[in-house]
Amino acid sequence: MLRHALGKTLRFLGYTVQYGCIAHCAFEYLGGIVVCSGPSMEPTIQNSDIVFSENLSRHFYCIRKGDIVIVKSPNDPKANICKRVIGLEGDKVCTSNPSDFLKSHSYVPKGHVWLEGDNLRNSTDSRCYGPVPYGLIRGRICLKIWPLNDFGFLRASPNGHRFLDD
Question: A single Gene Ontology molecular function, please (predicted)?
């Protein structure tokens, strides 16, 4: 009786560990569902919108300008942030705020990206903390799931003029 109960318990623990490893790999390498909070990505992503973030792009270095990414916050490693990629390594980016009279520019260093929220007036982003290491990127948002009336692929940046091409 004890041997039977012990066998069932060990079998259950074995399955739990196996399925836990599968779930971990799926969420780490394939993607997952994310609830976004805060106003920095409005109007593209509203507070409490639910999105799908795929993680393969970051592993294969397929992140491009205009992509919306989930990143470990440079200010708080326990938090994730959602921002749009404005510049990749070697790109020239506008580092000033839209309201600044004099515009300043800089180049994104090797191994980094420049991130900005779509709501430029209410976003803490690379204009505050500088370029972000590529290694902090957790995933790329590719689909909005909720609310259902906004289901689908994400819109282009309302700040397309901030992408520099020289």
Answer: serine-type endopeptidase activity
Residue 115 φ then ψ, to 5°: -115, 140
Which residue among 57, 65, 83, 157 is the active-site one?
83
What are the sequence ranges of the domains in the chain? 32-163
CA distance 145 to 153: 9
65 as an active site residue: the answer is: no
Give the DSSP letter string of the chain.
Answer: -HHHHHHHHHHHHHHHHHHHHHHHHIIIIIEEEEE--SSTTTTTS-TT-EEEEE-HHHHTT---TT-EEEEE-SS-TT-EEEEEEEE-TT-EEE-S-TT-SS--EEEPPTTEEEEE-SSGGG--SHHHH--EEGGGEEEEEEEEEESGGG-BSPPPPTTGGG----
Ramachandran angles phi, psi of 136, nearest 5°: -85, -10
The reported pTM is 0.77
The CATH superfamily holding the domain 32-163 is: Umud Fragment, subunit A (2.10.109.10)
83 catalytic per annotation = yes
Residue-wise pLDDT for 49-92, tens only, equals 888 888 887 777 788 888 899 999 888 888 888 999 988 988 88
